[in-house]
Design brief:
CATH architecture of one domain: 3-Layer(aba) Sandwich
CATH superfamily of one domain: P-loop containing nucleotide triphosphate hydrolases
Distance between the termini: 48 Å
Helix content: 25-40%
CATH class of one domain: Alpha Beta
Number of helices: 7
Strand content: 15-25%
Bound molecules: adenosine-5'-diphosphate, magnesium ion
């Protein structure tokens, strides 16, 4: 799709494209109207996220984290304000244009994995490639599953995988189209601490080795400390934005210790 012109950048950025934020939002508000009642889910939020950053978003329930993630991921649009994703002004796009931008730039990971119940892992990972019309889908899906340590689970269905393994399938699915941005809304919310560490190790590896920008919502300080920057929200506003002094580096375990009951012997 056509790129829309990027408006003049502030003093902080050089004119070349590599010095452009991946995410640039300015005075974004989101109001949900329910009958007579207006819910101000986001109020005048401005935020830059640069290529290759690893950002955690924290805040109490109802503070607007998911609303922000939905806008960042082009699943929803702001009521007012500007959002540029990789230089494209997306706040004014049609639904089809929005979907095209989303498919090109964004991979999602959710708390509840969002896998299709009956489909083997490899077919789950192929799905975004089918939508994108990409050839050699099986090969790419198998490679991504190997990347997340599931080369020996490619024909397993979700019920035959542990929670941690299901989330790894979801990460392979999010990465298979080579997005520049991974958005993860409470990706470890349904996982035990060991599986959570494995998932954080994967995000850190893809961030470090491939330069994928990662934005992750969590309510756990321990998880947020794997990021290099923490943005805090309250009542629809950003109330804090700080670097993490000494991020935790999660370690990927050598053995596959979280096989599920009833899975492979
Ligand atoms: P968080 O993810 O931080 O818990 P949300 O972004 O889900 O917060 O919600 C922010 C506010 O917007 C809450 O008051 C919530 O009730 C409201 N809200 C979220 N989604 C909708 C919606 N689709 N319709 C109406 N209100 C919504
Ligand atoms: Mg939420």
């Amino acid at each position: 799709m056509e790129r829309l012109p990027v408006e003049a950048q502030g003093a902080r950025s050089a004119p070349d494209a590599s010095a452009r934020p991946s995410i640039r939002i300015r005075q974004v508000s989101k109001v949900y109207t329910m009958g007579e009642i207006a819910v101000h889910a986001l109020r005048d939020v401005s935020l830059d996220i640069w290529p290759g950053e690893f950002v955690a978003i924290m805040g109490p329930s109802g503070s607007g984290k998911s609303t922000l993630m939905n806008i960042l991921g082009c699943l929803d649009q702001p009521t007012s304000g500007s959002y540029q994703l990789e230089g494209v002004e997306v706040s004014t796009l049609s639904d089809d244009e929005l979907a095209a931008v989303r498919n090109r730039y964004v991979g999602f990971v959710f708390q509840s994995f969002n896998l299709l119940p009956r489909l083997p892992a490899v077919e789950q990972v192929e799905l975004p490639l089918i939508y994108a019309g990409v050839p050699k889908r099986r090969e790419l899906a198998l490679a991504r599953l190997a990347d997340v340590g599931l080369a020996d689970r490619v024909h397993h269905r979700p019920t035959e995988l542990s929670g941690g393994q299901q989330q790894r399938v979801a990460i392979a699915r999010a990465l298979v189209t080579n997005p520049s941005l991974i958005l993860a809304d409470e990706p470890t919310g349904n996982l035990d601490s060991r599986s959570s560490a494995e998932i954080m190790a994967l995000f850190q590896r893809f961030n470090r080795e491939r330069g994928v920008t990662v934005v992750l919502v969590t309510h756990e300080e321990d998880i947020a400390r794997h990021a290099r920057r923490v943005v805090r929200m309250r009542d629809g506003s950003i109330v804090g934005d700080e670097p993490v002094a000494d991020p935790i580096r999660a370690v990927e375990s050598a053995s596959d210790g979280d096989a599920v009951d009833g899975g492979e012997p």
